[in-house]
Amino acid sequence: MTAWSSFSGDEVAALTQGSSFFTEPGERVCPGCGERRLRAYFTAPENARRPTLVSYVWCGGCDKFVGTRARHPEGLIFSDPLATLTTAERRELERSLTGFLAHLDKLWDSGALPQTFTA
Ligand SMILES: [Zn+2]
């Protein structure tokens, strides 16, 4: 099992530079290790009090990740390959960060990720 560690503050700042994940959702160069293995997944939790966008960004090269919550950009629509899961299935999957990120990485390898975005 992968032991995930967090991106540093500088690395997180570097992640926000350059083109948006929404316009170029493919793999990109990781600020931690320099490999083009940085991947991202976005989801909009239905139970949020206000429109919220949750993002998971991870690197298979150096096993770093960051999860963030932000305001959902108005008009942004995207596919969610996990949308078919029931609430219980989803909660079970998200219970373990290691398992969740491994699942996302597998979805990416199988072509279900990256998502497609329409603004
Ligand atoms: Zn990396």
What does this protein look like?
By secondary structure, the protein is α+β, with helices and mostly antiparallel strands. The protein has one domain. The chain has a 4-stranded mixed β-sheet, with helices on one face. The relative contact order is 0.22. The site of zinc ion has 9 residues, from loops.
For the structure shown, list the relevant keywords:
binds zinc ion, 4-stranded mixed sheet, 6 strands, 119 residues, two-stranded antiparallel sheet, alpha+beta
Please sum up the structure shown.
With 119 residues, the chain is an alpha+beta fold.
Strand order of the largest sheet: 1-4-3-2
Order of helices and strands: EHEEEEHHE
Q: Which class do the helix and strand fractions yield?
A: alpha+beta
The ligands bound in this entry are:
zinc ion
Shape: globular
- Distance linking N and C termini: 36 Å
The counted number of beta strands is 6
Total individual domains: 1
List the helices and strands and how they pair.
Elements lengths: L4 E2 L2 H7 L22 E6 L8 E8 L4 E8 L5 E2 L8 H8 L2 H14 L6 E2 L1
Parallel strand pairs: 1-4
Antiparallel strand pairs: 2-3, 3-4, 5-6
